[in-house]
Design brief:
Layout lengths: L4 H16 L55 E4 L3 H7 E3 L8 E3 L2 E3 L7 E3 L6 E8 L14 E5 L3 E5 L34 E8 L2 E2 L6 E3 L2 E6 L2 E8 L23 E2 L7 E9 L1
Antiparallel strand pairs: 1-15, 2-5, 3-4, 4-15, 5-14, 6-9, 6-15, 7-8, 7-14, 9-12, 10-11, 12-13
């Protein structure tokens, strides 16, 4: 009589498993009774809450600002209303002292003076910045209370008096200029202080110098309202053209404030490196 060899092998394995107390098909054998009357150990070991609790290293402790919008203890204060900090932290695009002026504790753009930028350079960060368009309404559209916050000097969060001021949707206050319109218009009246809280993740680049491995990502709150929700930028900000075609590899870069010819004021600027 012909006997299937594979069948016989399986039968032998099953018999051996039953004899040794193991489960079928070769799973691990449960340990026998412990010697000396020790307490029996369960197998496998039963999970406990402590097995998934991470104790070290402890989370860093910081002190938050005393009021909303104030700098926490681990922030770098870039502008606090004093003249000395302007000289210490800011310069024009050529590395010279800025021609923007200090007025009533605010840093005010002077038409034709050019951009100002931080002396420090940043990658990923959390930024708080407050700004105010002039109380006197002059002009309309893009000519009214226009400035911009350039993340790493390349990616613009638009500053504009967008209170009852019609313009293209991806160019109004809080837009990622010419790429993403804000989710809502949360603008205050001209002459009133407004705030941006920006979470920025810098791009990582592929092996070549013109392709993002991961693109820059931006979240913006305007006056406490979420208006950009972790969006991926297509490339640097351009007034004309497609941003995808102007991508170039870069590292840490400064924060830049734009001179667009309007006396926009800034105050309470701080940043946390992430």
């Amino acid at each position: 009589m012909f006997i299937n060899q594979n069948y016989m092998k399986k039968l032998m394995i099953l018999s051996l498993a039953l004899l040794t107390g193991a489960s079928a098909f070769g799973q691990p054998q449960r340990p026998g009774p412990p010697a000396g009357g020790a307490q029996k150990q369960e197998y496998p070991a039963r999970m406990t809450p402590q097995m998934t609790e991470i104790m070290e290293p402890e989370v860093t402790i910081i002190s938050p600002g005393e009021q909303p919008g104030m700098a926490p203890s681990d922030a770098i204060v870039l502008f606090d209303g004093s003249a000395g900090i302007i000289e210490r932290e800011w310069q024009d695009s050529r590395g010279n002292p800025t021609k923007w002026i200090l007025q009533d504790g605010a840093l005010v753009c002077v038409k034709g003076s050019g951009v100002i930028q931080t002396k420090r350079k940043f990658n990923d960060f959390q930024l708080h910045i407050e700004w105010k368009a002039p109380a006197e309404v002059i002009g309309d559209g893009q000519g009214r209370g226009n400035s911009g916050v350039y993340l790493q000097g390349l990616y613009e969060v638009q500053v504009l008096d967008s209170y009852n001021n019609k313009t293209y949707r991806n160019g109004q206050a809080g837009s990622l200029y010419k790429q993403y319109a804000p989710l809502v218009n949360a603008s205050r009246k001209p002459g009133e202080w407004q705030s941006y809280d920006i979470i920025y993740t810098a791009p990582r680049f592929a092996n070549d110098t013109t392709t993002y491995f991961t693109p820059p990502r931006v979240t913006v709150l305007h006056n406490g309202v979420l208006i950009q929700n972790n969006v991926s930028l297509r490339g640097p900000t351009l007034y004309i053209g497609m941003p995808e075609y102007s991508v170039k590899k870069h590292g840490a870069e400064p924060l830049v404030l734009q001179d667009h010819g309007n006396p926009v004021a800034y105050r309470n600027i701080w940043i946390r490196e992430l």
